[in-house]
Amino acid sequence: MRLEALEVGFEIHCEGSRAGDLADSVLAAWDWCLVSGDDGAGPFQQVKVELDPGLTTPARSSGATSLSGHDLPTLMDRLSPLVTRLAVTERRHDLVMFHACAVADPSTGDTVVLYGPSGAGKTTLARTLCTDLIYLSDETAGVAADLRVVPYFKPLSIIVNPTERLKEQVSPGRLGLVRPGEVGFRLVGLVQLCREPEHRGDALVESLATVDALPELMAQTSYTRDMERPLHRMADLAHRVGGVRRATYAEAEQLRPVVRAILDGDL
Amino acid sequence: MRVRRLDVLDEYVEDGRAAVYTTKGMVALLSELATAAWCMLDDRWVPTTEVTEMLIREFGDPGGGEADRLTQNALRSLAELSLVELDD
Questions:
Q1: Pick the CATH number of A96-263 from 3.10.129.10, 1.10.3720.10, 3.90.228.20, 3.40.50.150
Q2: Domain span including residue B28
C-alpha cells in the first residue's frame, strides 16, 4: 500500500506469517494518508514491516527501511514514529517542521499551529478542536517558505486502555474528525502550548516578544541546525503571522475560543 | 583577565536582548547586560576592564565597584553557556 506523509510517498510492504492482519491494521489506521496509483509525491520510500510471532532474527532487506516485531500493537506503535522520522528527514531542507498540532478553518484553510513538547496535550487538542476544524496533524506540521502548511494526516496515538503500555493508533476518521476538502492550508497563527493542570478559568493568552519565543520555538522544530541562519528564519516566520502567542491552559476545550479568535483575526 | 567570543550557530537581537544558538544545540536567551557585552566581543582577546568600561558607557555606573562585579557575573554566565572564553 502507498502512503503520503508531509507529501513524501511511502510504499509499505506488510510481511510475515500474519501479514494479512498487519495490512488490515495499517490500512485502518492510516486511511487518511493512503494514496493510490500515481497520486503520491513519488518516488516512494520503501518500508518493509514484518509481523511474525515466531520471529527470532529481525528482518533485513536492502534498499528498504525495515521494521519487525512479534506482536501487532507494538509494530503499529513503532510504525508511526518511523514514518514521521523518514518524512521529516526527507523534507528537512525545504520545510520548517514543528512538533505541533495543526488545525485549519474548513472554509478558508487558514491554519493555526500549536506547538509544544510531548505531554503538552497536542493529541487531545486535535481530538477536541477537530470536531469542527480540519485535522492536519497531532504531531508534525510542515510550513513552507510561502506559509503553505503541508498536512500530515497521521493516525492519532491514543490511550484506549489505561492498563495497556502501548497507545493505539487510531484513524482520525474513526474519531469523527473533520477531513479536508479541496482547500489549501496557510499558516496564520503560532501558539506555544503551556499546559498547567491546575489552571482554572479561560486560557491565559500572552503575546510573546519574538526573542522570548525563540528558545521554545527552536526546541520544538526539527533540523534547525540544517537551516541557514535558523534564528532569523524562525523570527521572520513568527513576524509574518503576527508573532507568537503563549497559551496557558488545563483542558483542551479552553483553547477552542482562542484558536477561533486567531482564525477570525480577532486575536 | 581577558575574554573573547566563541563560535555560535546563529544570533538574533531584538530590543537589546539576544537569543543565541550555541554549537551545543541550545538556544540561550541573554539579559540586556549580557547581550551588550556579547555584542561588543569578537574572536580577539580583550581585557574584561574594557568590557566594564563599555557597559558603564551604555548603562551608567552603579558605583561602589558594582559595575566590575556585574560585568564579571555577565561574562561568567556567557562562559557557562560556552558563548565566550575567559583566560583567568
A1: 3.90.228.20
A2: 2-87
Instruction: Name the nearest CA neighbour of B48 among B86, B78, B82, B6.
Output: B86
Q: Which residues pair with A112 in a beta bridge?
A: A103, A189
Interface touch A231/B13, C-beta < 8 Å: no
Per-residue DSSP letter, A224: G
Instruction: Establish if A224 touches chain B: CB-CB under 8 angstroms.
Output: yes
What residues of A are in contact with residue B14 (Cβ under 8 Å)? 209-211, 235
ipTM: 0.92
Least trusted range by pLDDT, from A56-70, A136-150, A171-185: A56-70
**Amino acid sitting at position A228:** E
Give the total number of structural domains in chain B.
Answer: 1
Residue with cell 500549536: A114
Smallest CA-to-CA distance from B8 within B86, B87, B88, B81 is with B81
pLDDT tens for residues A173-210? Answer: 999 999 888 899 999 999 999 999 999 999 999 999 99
Query: Residue A255: which residues within 8 A CB-CB, separation 6 or more?
Result: A114, A125, A128, A129, A191, A203, A247, A249
- Between CA A224 and CA A230, with CA A225 as vertex, the angle to 5 degrees is 55
- Would you call A33 exposed, middle or buried from its count of C-beta atoms within 10 A (0-12, 13-18, 19+)? buried
Q: Does A214 contact B27 at a Cβ distance shorter than 8 Å?
A: yes
Inter-chain residue contact A231 with B12, CB threshold 8 Å: yes
> Within its chain, how far is the Cα of A225 from the centroid?
21
CB-CB under 8 Å, B13 with A211 = yes
Q: Within an 8 Å CB–CB cutoff, is residue A232 touching chain B?
A: yes
What's the CATH number where B39 sits? 3.90.930
State the nearest Cα–Cα gap between A216 and chain B, in angstroms: 8
CB neighbours of A46 closer than 8 A, spacing ≥ 6? A10, A11, A13, A63, A64, A65
CA proximity to A179, closest of A211, A229, A136, A220: A136
Structural domain spans, chain A: 2-90, 96-263
Look at residue A160 in the predicted model and tell me its pLDDT.
Answer: 76
Q: Residue A215 gets which letter from DSSP?
A: H
